[in-house]
Amino acid sequence: MLNEPVGTVAGAGALLAILRDGQARTRAELVQLTGLARSTVSQRLDALLTHQWIVPTEDAISSGGRPAVAFAFNSSARVVLSADLGATHARVAVTDLATTVLAERTSDLAIDKGPEPTLQWLLDTFLELLDETGHTVEQVCGVGVGLPGPVEHASGRPINPPIMPGWDGFPVPEWLGERLGAAVLVDNDVNIMALGEHWAARPEADQLVFVKIGTGIGCGIISDRRLHRGAQGAAGDIGHVRVSSAADVVCRCGNTGCLEAVAGGASVAAKLAAAGVPASNSRDVVNLVRQGNTQAVQLIRQAGREVGDVLASIVNFFNPAVIVIGGDIAEAGEHVLAGVREVIYSRSLPLATQHLSIRTSELGDRAGVVGAAVMVIEHVLAPGTVDRAVLR
Amino acid sequence: MLNEPVGTVAGAGALLAILRDGQARTRAELVQLTGLARSTVSQRLDALLTHQWIVPTEDAISSGGRPAVAFAFNSSARVVLSADLGATHARVAVTDLATTVLAERTSDLAIDKGPEPTLQWLLDTFLELLDETGHTVEQVCGVGVGLPGPVEHASGRPINPPIMPGWDGFPVPEWLGERLGAAVLVDNDVNIMALGEHWAARPEADQLVFVKIGTGIGCGIISDRRLHRGAQGAAGDIGHVRVSSAADVVCRCGNTGCLEAVAGGASVAAKLAAAGVPASNSRDVVNLVRQGNTQAVQLIRQAGREVGDVLASIVNFFNPAVIVIGGDIAEAGEHVLAGVREVIYSRSLPLATQHLSIRTSELGDRAGVVGAAVMVIEHVLAPGTVDRAVLR
């Protein structure tokens, strides 16, 4: 970083980084903002115009004389293919460079069928959606995919994903990249949900923790406005933190007393079924809560308390500005939230909770696909990537 | 950040940032590394030479002809005053710009006597140490102070510190700054210990958690190689996380079941005293362990397990590369460490512990003063600060 020549940083990518806020700027303004020579700015603008990353527009505030030409970011320059693949269902979308969803589709999907049939279906769906929006594969600048398991960040490959038989080490980026001719980025589903929610709903928060409560439980962490992946990319796996109320409950991970084993959607559904209330998954639980089933409401509130107990420690340790509760179970709304808040406010330090915002996801089901698009856009529009693309 | 002119970033500070690694470089090398014009580099080097931040040296690898002049960072250009003030004892030091301790003093100190007597003593000690090293106040580039309580980062003032009566909101930076004529930076003691240990012992670790087990328990967090302070500067306060084994133990914070109330040095000493073994603080506990007192060894190992239980959750959530155990109790060495490791390896996810290093502090008692010096040096040598200092 330190030894990177300043010239690269101050290339076309630096101009685009400035223009990405949507505001149009004149050549003179860009010269002033970057400190670059006028001739360099002109050369870089030409490259960006050629690639249609920016469009010329007339400067509205110009007074008298010939109006100065201003340049604005062109969010329609390319499209992004985006997918949030869960254990049992999937959401697939085409977005523009401002993460606006142009077309999308949801579908049941059994991820445990293995990588090839899943990815073939995903490829077909991508192509259908592209067709729907009137775009071609050539206009795709990148592909973002979220998977329900640990993903090695550098390679984009799943690593020992517990609920994805056959996927361990599968080269997802290569498989899709060869067929679509675009960069493919893959990450854990909760990480992309955190990215999406941060981008769309709370971009001003320096620290945000997105907790997904579905069949399992996990969280995505935004630290200093960037995704915190941890030393092995394993950060956020709070589903297997031990909770005191469940010392003897065996978890699918083989340990006992895990949060997920007492508060995950599968666990709550099993408790309801054992009590004679028909429920087989987290969606059933949410439907029962919506119908006002007392047992379901009690269990979901208690699940919220269990999650809150783990989050109380995290609030003391990490001191986030925002906690977002998402995933299927979050759709049970205020009952889960009340349980979470109850414990956090009783257990965390007052200094850390004074301005803490605890809320359900604003993007809801869409957090994943928006986040996958954000991941791609941040990569594609990074100054270094743009420089390499337009200057080659 | 985005709108900061490139010219500022590429000033004298950028040259110093490159030279700080200790390696001497020629003018030509610096032109190549920065991408700046030769005339600009020469002008910036002159400014740095005038302020003695760098010294000229002959390029050793020059072959034939007139040897090229190279420039090296001058770590003796200034000195730093550094202090680690605890609840009952203090360590004060003078260091150079490479954090080498030139003189230091340790002393008993009752922080609860209030800010004025404490800071007056600190000022006197700083001046005595400066005299010992043959330096004057004019050579001091900054002052770093660690305090045993929460500190508001922006103002450097303690905020509601529980064991520091009279210190709430006291303007420590202004009080010392007026008398020493230098920038004063103040932070929580565990934060500076984390900074010191990271700088001196594990600079390559992206994520490091420094746990201080003394009378109380707290931790300092390095994320992306920088101190993570959290939204309210409250991050790292793990002493009041609830642990299951202590549901009915009342903590000094007013809550029950806090980690500190069962595993802190004061708690362990009280348990020993109640069992008829004379001990009144964490140093007594460590001495008993060193003497092989079985009860003390058992209690300290159990304290390690309690701390390990909280750290196991943190490992799952944060996925650090390194956990460092410091503070008085850490001097009981392998017994504490064994307890911590036992629980982390049994409770945390294998992926997150596979390459996790868990160790005691390498700097030991000195982590705080080294860290306070690092805090000052990072501030003083930051490109923007250097630019303002040499170009004014």
State the main characteristics.
homodimer; 392 residues; alpha/beta; Arc Repressor Mutant, subunit A; Nucleotidyltransferase, domain 5; 3 domains; 5-stranded mixed β-sheet; 15 strands; 42% helix; kinase (chains A, B); WH-like_DNA-bd_sf (chains A, B); WH_DNA-bd_sf (chains A, B); transferase (chains A, B); ATPase_NBD (chains A, B)
* Main interface: chain pair and counts: A-B, 63 and 62 residues
End-to-end distance of chain A: 22 Å
Please indicate the percent range of residues of chain A in DSSP E strands (runs of 2 or more).
15-25%
What overall form of chain A do the CA principal axes indicate? Answer: globular
Low-pLDDT runs of 5+ residues of chain A are: 1-9
Q: Based on the structure given, which CATH architecture of the largest domain in chain A is correct?
A: 2-Layer Sandwich
- In percent, how helical is the residue content of chain A? 40-55%
Mean pLDDT level of chain A: 89
The H/E string of chain A reads HHEHHEEEEEHEEEHEHEEEHHHHEHHEHH
Radius of gyration of chain A: 23 Å
CATH top-level class of the largest domain in chain A: Alpha Beta
Q: What is the CATH fold-level name of the largest domain in chain A?
A: Nucleotidyltransferase, domain 5
Looking at this structure, what is the CATH superfamily of the largest domain in chain A? ATPase, nucleotide binding domain
In spatial order, strands of the major sheet of chain A run: 6-5-4-7-10
GO molecular function (chains A, B): kinase activity
Keywords (chains A, B): Kinase, Transferase
Protein name (chains A, B): Putative NBD/HSP70 family sugar kinase
Organism (chains A, B): Nonomuraea dietziae
